[in-house]
Design brief:
Layout: E1 9-18, H1 21-28, H2 32-48, E2 53-58, E3 61-66, H3 69-85, E4 97-106, E5 108-109, E6 112-113, H4 116-127, E7 133-136, H5 137-142, E8 151-159, E9 166-173, H6 205-217, E10 220-224, H7 231-240, E11 250-254, H8 264-271, H9 282-291, E12 295-300, H10 306-319, E13 323-329, E14 338-342, H11 358-370, H12 381-390, H13 395-404, H14 410-416, H15 420-425, H16 432-446, H17 451-464, H18 467-470, H19 474-482, H20 487-496, E15 503-504, H21 505-512, H22 517-525, E16 530-532, E17 539-541, H23 544-556, H24 560-578, H25 591-595, H26 598-610, H27 614-623, H28 625-630, H29 634-651, H30 657-673, H31 677-694, H32 697-713, H33 717-733, H34 741-753, H35 757-772, H36 782-794, H37 797-813, H38 817-833, H39 837-854, H40 862-876, H41 878-889, H42 893-901
Parallel strand pairs: 4-7, 10-13, 10-14, 11-12, 12-13
Antiparallel strand pairs: 1-3, 1-4, 2-3, 5-6, 7-9, 8-9, 15-17, 16-17
Length: about 900
């Protein structure tokens, strides 16, 4: 690099220096010179490999000229990587070098340049931060190529010191270079007062883009949402990206602490630096000032003074076309031209690449801060997901939860969130009491016409009623909105807290026995209820933290018993409707209809077992009888029954023997599904005793049918067959043959087990009409399934296929997933007997995966499935079988059923009798 070979014509100038070199020299003392020398060596080595020519070095600065803009950019990238990867004496001694590039016409005279382009390059370097590479628009334009994977980030227009025009600056972004820097250090006076955030902004990419688009198209956008939903943070973050768009600035005004409606205009004027004029309303001064300016006004927490804020906004918008307003509020203004945008909770759904959801990402970020930089362990992932799901993705609740993770594990916190307020608010001081007196002082200060006093008061207000204080607890946040509700809206909010999920309008009407439209509209407007439109109609949902608050208010108002008893009655009514068609006649039971009710049933059961009627709870549990077992939840069903028995013992509530018998019988079936044989037999005997006391022949027949199953589970097959035959005969003689259907199924299974296939077929043929007459059981198509098993025993693949396809299709149609696994396994056997062992292995793998997800056992046919599966493994060999089995294991139950139902009919196979001619 020789100074006498200076490029001429289009030249790219590069300036570098060490950021904070004086401070670094003072800190390192004698150790600074080696660092400075090593910094120079690294830069010179980089420049020697480029076409740059070093003009001079002064202190920690370099001035270099390049004939090629692209080469200059590549040299900067290489130099920054070399500096970053070098092993310096200590992290504190690492020099942070800022670099600036500019390209322009210049001629070297006597070994130097006398051109304003040189000064422009120096000013660009001075605008950079340590580790940052900035370049002018000219350099960006003339760079023919960039380093691999590099790009130039547009930082907007900036006024350089000593220059009247504005220069568009670009930042070099490349692997190995820092990316996040403050705004360039230029001569611009920052035309905004947006608050500086002390925590990182996580997620909300789609929301930022959507809100930015709305602001480009509309002059008034109101971001509406519940307290703690993240409205302020999102508005500030989005507005920060628009500072360069508004030549007269972006101005943030927090109205939370404005206690007098007349002071809203004063608060805005104080932020804009306006002096109230004697004898003139301050709003007129404000409108006149804004009329000729292009600015963005961010008004935060407008619900504190909704009407007054609406009036000022209306005056500003009609006074001039250059001003736009982004407002945050818990309810809209309902002004002409207002665009209301409702902020959604953070997504709790994992990202498209399988990464954490936005809600989990926020919790991970804040948890690391709460734990002193220690990030959550991978083993905590499932519990963290449980936490954010329980908190409905509400940012404030997640922030508070992260603080709790300083002293609790993720699993401990997840277990405590049944009491959201207790888990998140315990031990936190509610700051509301401190606000009133300070707020009155602020109001008195804002009322003055003296500009200095008004500005000081406004700053005091911002300090006192900061977002952190307002959102110190969930209770304080929700109370802010609750206090604005009228009596009807407040009562509706309290009563809706008994529901665990979304409700439709008829349900709200049923709950209150009154027209709820007016109070419901108020709750939706104030963001205390989320209105969610669907094709079938709008549903209304309460976020869990708000529900917890409303439930506490419900108890304090002495209304809990009435509201929860009403909810239990609704739940029983909903269960009854699931068994009936539009004409109120019984229809085939679909377990999918019960899936949507599950959370409400659990809430109703919880009340029945702790403060309500145990009898109502038993009726609820009975309505979910088959659902518990088919969803792999037999154990949960048993636990609810035990809790209800305890409630009966506690209260002495009389329960009719018939209802006890039904509950004990259901309990016995649950225990059998869980493999708890002793418990199964014990409750079977209790059910029989209660049924005999009730004197109901049909009930007794249904209870006695379970005895055969208990004996089968204990391996007493001969006794089971004898008992089943006796129950069937007794039921027929008593005129309740259809109530003994379970005994018919058990007898057919036993006959199949010992190879009496013809008799099993005869028994089942007589049971088809009985099954068709029982809507609660016909969706299982157990007769067809067992006839399919009989056909498999006979090696009649055509009959087996026909029966099993009917059984599987019906079981999937009506949601009997556990029993669908048996049908899938049976079709796997049919495939194996038909010579398609690979499909058989896939189906066995799929059935086992679904059983594992349901936590259910293979059931009474488990030994047979294991035997046939072993035969398929032998036929295929271990590696082929394992590969096919794994393919099946990756399928959902719906995909597995589709695979099984897609198996060709045996009559379509090559060589079948259909094609024999």
């Amino acid at each position: 690099m020789q100074a006498h070979n200076l490029p001429s014509g289009l030249v790219t100038f590069m300036f570098t220096d060490i950021e904070g070199s004086t401070r670094l020299a003072r800190m390192l003392g004698a150790g600074y010179r080696p660092v400075l020398s090593e910094h120079r060596r690294l830069l010179r080595r980089t420049l020697s490999d480029s076409d740059g020519t070093e003009l001079f070095t002064e202190g920690d600065s370099f001035f270099v000229a390049f004939s090629d803009a692209g080469a200059a950019i590549e040299a900067c990238a290489t130099a920054q990587r070399a500096l970053a990867s070098h092993e310096w004496p200590s992290p504190e001694s690492t020099p942070k070098v800022r670099m600036g590039l500019h390209t322009g016409e210049a001629e070297a005279v006597n070994g130097e340049y006398a051109s304003p382009e040189v000064h422009r390059a120096a000013r660009i370097a001075a605008a950079a931060h340590g580790g940052q590479v900035l370049c002018s628009e000219a350099t960006a334009r003339y760079a023919a190529s960039l380093p691999p994977e590099a790009s130039l980030l547009d930082l907007g227009l900036h006024r350089l010191r000593g220059f009247d025009d504005r220069e568009r600056l670009y930042q070099l972004v490349a692997p190995g270079l820092e990316r996040q820097f403050p705004r360039p250090r230029t001569a611009d006076a920052l035309a905004h007062n947006l608050p500086t955030q002390v925590t990182s902004f996580v997620g909300r990419h789609a929301e930022r883009a959507e809100l930015s688009t709305l602001m480009a198209d509309h002059r008034l956008v109101t971001a509406v949402g519940a307290g703690g939903a993240g409205k302020t943070r999102l508005a500030v973050e989005m507005a920060g990206g628009l500072v360069d768009t508004y030549q007269d600035g972006v101005w943030f005004v927090d109205l939370a602490s404005v206690t007098d409606p007349g002071l809203v205009a004063f608060a805005i004027a104080a932020v804009l630096g306006l002096r109230p004029e004697p004898g003139r309303p301050v709003v007129d001064t404000l409108v006149e000032f804004a009329a000729s300016r292009r600015m963005l006004l961010v008004l935060d927490t407008c619900d504190a003074q909704l009407s007054a804020a609406a009036e000022v906004i209306s005056r500003l918008l009609t006074g001039g076309g250059g001003i736009r307003v982004l407002a945050t509020s818990r309810e809209p203004f309902n002004l002409p031209g207002e665009t209301v945008w409702r902020i959604p909770p953070l997504s709790v759904t994992p990202g498209p690449s399988g990464g954490p959801s936005e809600a989990v990402s926020l919790l991970l970020d804040r948890t690391a801060a709460a734990r002193g930089g220690r990030r959550a362990e991978p083993s905590e992932a499932d519990d963290l997901q449980r936490v954010v799901s329980r908190l409905d993705g509400l940012p404030l609740a997640i922030e508070l939860a992260a603080a709790r993770l300083r002293v609790l594990s993720a699993s401990q916190l997840a277990e405590r969130l049944d009491d959201v307020l207790g888990a998140l608010d315990a031990g936190r001081e509610d700051p509301e009491g401190t606000y009133a007196g300070e707020g009155r002082w602020v109001a008195s200060q804002l009322a003055t016409v003296d500009l200095a006093q008004a500005g000081a008061a406004r700053r005091a207000a911002a300090a006192i009623r900061s977002a952190t204080q307002r959102h110190a607890t969930i209770q304080a946040t929700v109370t802010w909105s609750y206090r604005t509700l009228g009596p009807r809206a407040a009562r509706l909010l309290r009563w809706l807290s008994v529901f665990s999920g979304p409700v439709d309008l008829p349900t709200v009407e049923w709950l209150l026995d009154d027209d709820p439209l007016d109070p419901l509209s108020v709750l939706v407007d104030k963001s205390m209820i989320q209105a969610e439109p669907h094709a079938s109609g709008t549903t209304y949902r309460m976020l869990d933290p708000i529900r917890a608050y409303a439930a506490r208010r419900l108890a304090e108002a002495g209304e809990e018993r009435g509201a929860r008893d009403r909810h239990v009655a609704w739940s029983l009514h909903a269960l009854e409707k699931a068994h009936l068609g539009p004409d109120h006649r019984p229809v085939t039971l679909s377990l999918y209809a019960l899936d949507t009710l599950a959370d409400e049933m659990r809430a109703a059961l919880r009340w029945s077992a702790t403060g309500g009627s145990a009898r109502g709870g038993l009726r609820l549990a009975s309505g979910l009888d088959q659902w518990w077992r088919e969803r792999g939840l037999a154990r949960e069903g048993r636990l609810w029954l035990f809790r209800l028995y305890g409630r009966i013992a506690e209260t002495g509530e009389p329960i009719p023997e018939a209802e006890l018998a039904a509950a004990y019988h259901m309990h016995s079936l649950h225990a059998g599904a869980d493999g708890e044989v002793a418990e199964e037999l014990r409750f079977s005997q209790r059910a029989e005793a209660a049924a005999r006391q009730a004197g109901d022949a049909g009930l007794l027949a249904r209870v006695l049918t379970g005895r055969g199953g208990s004996l089968v589970d204990m391996g007493q097959y001969d006794d089971a067959e004898r008992v089943s035959r006796e129950v069937i005969a007794w039921a027929e003689s008593s005129g309740v043959a259809s109530d003994a259907l379970l005994a018919v199924y058990t007898l057919a299974e036993l006959l199949w087990r010992r190879g009496a296939l013809d008799e099993a077929a005869d028994v089942l043929a007589g049971a088809r009409a009985l099954e068709a007459a029982r809507p609660a059981e016909r969706g299982r198509r157990s007769v067809d399934f067992l006839l399919g098993m009989v056909a498999l025993g006979r090696r009649d693949l055509v009959a087996a296929h026909d029966h099993l396809v009917v059984a599987l299709r019906s079981r999937m149609t009506y949601g009997y997933h556990s029993r669908a696994c048996d049908a899938i396994c049976a079709i796997a056997v049919r495939c194996a007997l038909g010579g398609d062992a690979v499909t058989a292995a896939r189906l066995f793998g799929a059935a086992q995966a679904t059983r594992s997800a349901l936590r259910s056992t293979p059931g009474r046919f488990g030994a047979y499935w294991a035997e046939r599966q072993a035969a398929v493994r032998t036929a295929l060999g271990d590696s082929t079988f394992d590969a096919a089995y794994a393919e099946g294991g990756a399928l959902t139950v719906d995909e597995a059923a589709a695979l099984a139902l897609g198996v060709d009919h045996p009559d379509m196979a090559l060589g079948s009798r259909r094609f024999a001619a």
